[in-house]
Hints:
This protein is an alpha/beta fold. The protein is built from five helices and 16 strands.
Amino acid sequence: MTNPAELVVRVAAIQLDVKLGDKAGNLEKIQSYAREAADQDADLVVFPECAVTGYVMESREEAMEYAEPADGPVAQAAAELSRELGIHLVYGYLERDGDAVYNALALFGPEKRLCGYRKIHLPYVGADRFVDPGNRPFEVIDTPCGRLGLHICYDGAFPESGRIMTLQGADLLLLPTNWPAGAEPFAKYCVNTRAWENTVHMLAADRVGTERSAQFIGLSRIVDCQGTTLAEADGESEVILYADLDMMAPRSKRTVRVDGTHHIDRIADRRPDFYGRITDRPS
Length: 283
């Protein structure tokens, strides 16, 4: 960590080309890029959605075949990698839990597995056509790298996701994703908007390449809590993005533009009594 007393954290977003079903090859690539990021003093290293397995499944049976338990062989390798490098590590995979299968994330610290997250919002595309909806609430994890909020790809299209984690105290929202062609507006505009509207840092780690008939668009980025892009990737290359984030900055939501006459606080200024329809179930 660059300066623990000030909670300045170096984060790395890894943009990968993932191979469908090649868990050994994908894991080898994860290990290689994690080591490279650690050599550049990264404290937190984030890989894309389904980085272990690939995404474009054609059946639930295929998704279940590629999935593994939360404590499976890849998790054991990730735990060892985090210990070896002294980093926090996030990656996406398909999680098998009995007869259920989830689009999931794992977060490891140098000492232990800190949490898992299961994708809540499921679009009708790829593996998400066949997996089970996430059955755990959004959660913010307090780590030496700050307070981290985890969500996956399509979750980020719902502003409620980022807002609830902001209200839980998140400093940094992590969005491992597999953005397909057509998602360019989200990549270019919504990541910055989520950071700006919640006064939180945000990191989106996407993939590139083609899987079966699907093309993935890259455009990974790291954005600070004022909505400013600190690092961004192209749409074709495997690359590591780095940024040094002050994790104390998002904890003050009040922005003073002109002292005494122009103050902004998009958390304190909310009017929840007028938002009841947001939680109505769709008809």
